[in-house]
C-alpha cells in the first residue's frame, strides 16, 4: 500500500468527521429551543430562583459557552474545539467538562461492550464456520442451533430474563451495579474479581443475543465458498481437511465478517443505552441517557461526535486490515 492510498484514506477520514460534526452543529440550531434557558428553567421550578436571577445566569452562561457570538464565529470555534477534543462544559454536571465525563465512562463501555462484541464475533464466526463445514462432526454442528434461536431476543429482554432467573431466583450473580456497595475502586485483585462478577450478567445478555447473528452470516458465507474453484482445487491436491478449513475456507469467508465487526462496534452503543441503564453501569450509554433526560445538549453533542469519530477511525483501520487478511486485494 503506497503513501497515496494512505493519504486518501486519511483525507476521507477527516472529511467524514468534518461532515458529521457540521451536521451536529447546525441541526440543533434549526430549533428555537435554548438549552441553557431550559436547564435553568428546570432548576428554577425546584430551587426557587427568581426570574431576574435566571436571566442573569442565562446571559452569563451564554457568554461563557460563546452563544452570544455570530454563528460563523461559533462554528469556527466549535471546529477548533473538536480538533483539541474539547466538547465544552456539561450543563448537568457543571463545571465538569464533557471530555472528563466521557473519559470517566469510556473504560466501562470498553470493558463491557467492546469485549462482549469481540467475544460474540469470535464465537459466532467459529460456530458458523463449523456449522457449514461438511466434514465437521454432527454434534459440533448442532451446537450453533440454540444461539440461532436466541437471535430474535433483544439484549434488554435477555437482560431482564437473566436478572430474574439467575440474579433474583437463583441468586448466583449480583442483580446490577458496577461493583459492590462500599467497595473502593482499585487495582486490588479482590476489587477486580468483584467487578468481574458484576459484569457477567450484562455481558451474557449482550453475548447471547448477538452470537446467533454472527453464526447465520458466517454459515451463509461458508456455504457459498464451498463451491468455489479454489476450494475444490485444494481438495483435489489432497490437502488435509484442517488446512483447507483454515487457509481456503475460513480465511475467505472472514472478510464480510470483519466488515460487520467494524459496523457492530459502532452501533453497539444503541444497546448500551438500555443495557447499561438496566444494570446500573456508569458507561457511555448511561451518560448519554442521563444527558438526554437532563436536556444537557453539550454532553449529547459531545457523546455523538465522539461515537462518530470512533466509527470513522474503525472503518479506516479496516481499510488497512483488509489487504492483510486477503492477499488478492491490491490497492493501486
Would you write up a description of this structure?
This protein has a domain at 103-295: MetI-like (MetI-like fold). It is built from 13 helices and no strands. It has helices at 3-26, 35-47, 51-65, 71-83, 98-132, 138-141, 144-149, 155-169, 189-225, 229-236, 241-279, 284-293, 297-325. The model has no long low-confidence stretch (mean pLDDT 76).
Brief summary:
The protein is an all-alpha fold. It has helices at residues 3-26, 35-47, 51-65, 71-83, 98-132, 138-141, 144-149, 155-169, 189-225, 229-236, 241-279, 284-293, 297-325.
Radius of gyration: 25 Å
Q: Give the amount of beta strand, in percent.
A: under 5%
Helix % is over 70%
Number of helices: 13
Structural class: mainly alpha
Q: Judging from the principal axes of the Cα atoms, what is the shape?
A: globular
The rounded distance between the terminal residues' Cα atoms is 8 Å
Mean pLDDT: 76
The CATH homologous superfamily of the domain at 103-295 is termed: MetI-like
Which consecutive residue ranges, at least 5 long each, have pLDDT under 50?
none
Give the key terms.
single chain, 332 residues, mainly alpha, 13 helices, globular
What's the structural blueprint in terms of helices and strands?
Layout: H1 3-26, H2 35-47, H3 51-65, H4 71-83, H5 98-132, H6 138-141, H7 144-149, H8 155-169, H9 189-225, H10 229-236, H11 241-279, H12 284-293, H13 297-325
Helix pairs in contact: 1-4, 1-13, 2-3, 5-9, 5-11, 5-12, 5-13, 8-9, 8-11, 9-11, 10-11, 11-12, 11-13, 12-13
Amino acid at each position: 500500500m503506497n503513501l497515496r492510498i494512505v493519504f486518501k484514506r486519511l483525507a476521507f477520514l477527516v472529511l467524514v468527521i468534518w461532515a458529521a460534526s457540521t451536521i451536529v452543529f447546525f441541526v440543533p440550531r434549526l430549533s428555537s429551543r435554548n438549552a441553557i434557558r431550559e436547564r435553568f428553567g428546570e432548576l428554577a421550578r425546584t430551587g426557587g430562583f427568581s426570574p431576574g436571577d435566571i436571566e442573569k445566569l442565562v446571559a452569563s452562561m451564554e457568554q461563557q459557552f460563546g452563544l452570544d457570538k455570530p454563528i460563523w464565529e461559533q462554528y469556527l470555534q466549535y471546529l477548533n474545539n473538536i480538533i483539541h477534543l474539547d466538547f465544552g462544559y456539561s450543563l448537568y454536571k457543571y463545571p465538569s467538562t464533557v471530555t472528563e465525563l466521557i473519559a470517566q465512562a469510556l473504560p466501562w463501555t470498553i470493558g463491557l461492550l467492546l469485549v462482549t462484541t469481540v467475544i460474540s464475533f469470535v464465537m459466532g464466526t467459529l460456530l458458523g464456520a463449523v456449522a457449514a463445514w461438511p466434514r465437521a462432526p454432527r454434534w459440533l454442528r448442532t451446537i450453533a442451533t440454540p444461539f440461532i434461536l436466541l437471535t430474535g431476543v433483544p439484549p434488554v429482554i435477555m437482560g431482564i430474563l437473566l436478572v430474574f432467573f439467575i440474579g433474583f431466583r437463583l441468586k448466583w450473580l449480583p442483580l446490577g451495579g458496577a461493583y459492590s456497595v462500599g467497595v473502593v475502586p482499585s487495582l486490588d485483585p479482590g476489587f477486580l474479581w468483584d467487578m468481574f462478577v458484576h459484569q457477567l450478567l450484562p455481558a451474557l445478555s449482550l453475548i447471547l443475543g448477538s452470537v446467533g447473528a454472527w453464526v447465520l452470516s458466517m454459515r451463509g458465507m461458508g456455504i457459498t465458498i464451498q463451491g468455489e474453484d479454489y476450494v475444490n482445487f485444494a481438495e483435489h491436491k489432497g490437502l488435509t481437511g484442517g488446512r483447507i478449513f483454515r487457509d481456503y475456507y475460513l480465511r475467505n469467508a472472514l472478510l464480510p465478517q470483519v466488515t460487520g465487526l467494524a459496523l457492530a462496534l459502532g452501533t453497539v452503543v444503541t444497546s448500551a443505552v438500555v443495557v447499561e441503564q438496566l444494570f446500573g453501569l456508569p458507561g457511555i450509554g448511561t451518560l448519554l441517557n442521563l444527558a438526554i433526560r437532563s436536556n444537557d445538549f453539550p454532553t449529547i453533542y459531545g457523546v455523538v461526535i465522539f461515537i462518530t469519530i470512533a466509527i470513522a477511525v474503525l472503518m479506516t483501520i479496516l481499510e488497512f486490515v483488509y489487504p492483510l487478511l486477503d492477499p488478492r486485494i491490491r490497492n493501486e
